[in-house]
Amino acid sequence: MPFTIATWNINSVRLRLPIVEHFLRTRQPDVLCLQETKCPNEFFPHAAFHALGYDHVAIHGQKGYHGVATISKLPFEDIVRQDFCAIGDARHLSVRLRAGGKRLRVHNFYVPAGGDEPDRTINVKFGHKLDFIEEMRLTNAEAEPGVSSLLLGDLNIAPFENDVWSHKQMIRIVSHTPGECEGLLKIVADGNWVDLMRAHFPMEEKVFTWWSYRAKDWLASNRGRRLDHIWGSKDLVPHLADVTVLSEARGWERPSDHVPVLATLDI
DNA sequence: ATGGTCGGCTCCCGA
Hints:
Deoxyribonuclease I, Chain A; six-stranded mixed beta sheet; 14 strands; globular
């Protein structure tokens, strides 16, 4: 059966609720991983998701900043919230569920953006980002016997040349500096992951999931980056049927600066 | 070389 999973950094779940509801109604993913919910757990809008048939909602929120949520039509067998860098940030949530004939572990990540200066000696936020991705290397796609894995989220790193509008002009800009890109690829290698977006889109093709709010016209300038990712365990690769980047969502009413990415697996 | 725009228990800070 087809199983569709999506990731979307929505930059406030309460403010963005109308377009998230529109997305769920029209695309009907089985599971949606949200980042930057910016919503304390006690204020999370559960009812809106239940009304659309998403009865299973796992949240990891905090006041003002960060926050992740996993919205699902399928029940969870297990929920884990990991505190990366042990500073109490709500940046990770994982669930286990059954889809088709498979058991699936679904990780939802919001990696720190890392500030402006790509030097940890003068920018603690960049140091935090490097420490976070170092710790992420322990997140292994083959951690649980008999359980396939997916890792989705805003990883705030665009690792390949065609993940940014200009490799040359981005090389010293946080999100595309060599150190963090290597760090991200090391998680993929050490953790036995496959970049499912790049398994679907050829390396020669530019793929973006984020366009700055600061551009006068995001579509005309098209200075995007691929900050959002969908990774899977190797056994899932033959089941990958489609990947869609919903670029049009950047032009919706009161948009997020990120757009949804969907992957469909035949499992 | 610089500034541009969002969101949040907001008058700064993080993105």
